[in-house]
Amino acid sequence: MNIRKLTSLGMTPLVLAGIAVAAPIAGATAASATPQGCQVGKPTENTGFAICHRGTGQVRVKVTCEDGPTGRSHFAYGPWVGIDKTSKVACGAAQRYFVTLVDYQTR
Length: 107
Known about the structure:
By secondary structure, the protein is α+β, with helices and mostly antiparallel strands. Helix content is 29%, strand content 42%. The chain has one helix at residues 2-32; strands at residues 35-41, 47-55, 59-67, 73-77, 86-90, 97-106. It has a three-stranded antiparallel sheet, with no helix packed on it. It has a three-stranded antiparallel sheet with strand order 4-3-6, with no helix packed on it. It starts with a helix and ends with a strand.
């Protein structure tokens, strides 16, 4: 039993040192996971798209939609996609809704 306790206590500084080293590395990896070279577009009056060509991570399109008859606005989001993939979304019925702004989000 005493040997187990000594081994366990002897490993504690190594484990803590490993955590101290791993934390900054993990932070650097998360910060560098950013899509770059992104483009947005509006191919029709009620759809929008986003695509990123460089970096890592994911992107999704975010469009501001306006209801023609009422003038009310809402957001619509496309799916999260990887680099060189297109995220697309439509506002709703083409005869009623139209896109007023196309933007994107990254993670």
